[in-house]
Amino acid sequence: MPIDFDALPDTRVPNFVSRPTDQVIADIAYHEAGHAVIGMTYGMSLARLRVHTVDRDGYMGWTGTTTWNNCYVACFHLAVELAAGEAAAKRHLISSGHPVYVADRLAASPHDRDMAIAALARSNYTVTLDDTEPEGPATGTSWARAMTAADQVVSEAWEQITAIAEALTAAPRRELSGAQVAELTGIANAHPAA
Q1: Residue 133 and residue 69: Cα distance in Å, rounded?
Q2: Which of 6, 49, 77, 150 could be cross-linked to 32 through a Cys-Cys bond (beta carbons 3.0 to 4.6 Å apart)?
């Protein structure tokens, strides 16, 4: 079943932390690269990803967006794709010298977790917040399990995620198309669904 992400509430929180802008941009680029690379690996059709500014109540902050043409993937894979942004950002922060507890805080992405819960509920797939697993894998998963799987696939695709994050930060307007990501990673970008 296709999921209309535009119909879901936007719960992203712009990054207003007082850290150097280039560090914030890099963190967001790794986050979005994690979504893009893992989603494409699962067969999703990437339209674009970008890092951009946003104004909320007169304050300028940074955020990122990964836009898909379609999301025809297994429910568990969609949960993992949504968790992959946080997993990639955390891995980048740790490799940049941040202690794990700081990386956990800076990479936390409750908007992706909330999107997984809301979007997958529309497919009768439950994502639990505690460590309890639904009765069978076809009916749902825990967010902890999705995060564990995301850590694993991000680790396996780290070279590609790094290439995309670096290209994204260097790109004009900090934006890459699905075709550019496919060319840089060697991962086929699925054709958009009719």
Answers
A1: 30
A2: 49
pLDDT at 98: 93
Q: Read out DSSP for 52-80?
A: EEEEETTEEEEEEEEEEEE--S-HHHHHH
pLDDT digits (tens, 9 = 90+) for 144-169: 999 999 999 999 999 999 999 999 99
CA of 190: how far to CAs of 4, 13, 43, 46, in Å? 18, 30, 6, 8
What is the predicted pLDDT for the residue at 104?
A: 93
Question: What is the Cα–Cα distance from 137 to 125, expressed in whole angstroms?
Answer: 9
Of 75, 86, 150, the closest CA to residue 112 belongs to 86
The Cβ of residue 99 has, within 10 Å, a number of other Cβ atoms equal to: 10
Strand partners, 66: 49
Distance between CA atoms of residues 146 and 162, nearest Å: 21
* pLDDT < 70 regions, the chain: 1-18, 193-194
In degrees rounded to 5, what are phi and psi of residue 149? -65, -40
Phi and psi at residue 12, to the nearest 5°: -60, 145
CA angle 72, 74, 77 (to 5 degrees): 105
Do 194 and 70 touch, CB atoms closer than 8 A? no
If you count them, how many residues does the chain have?
A: 194
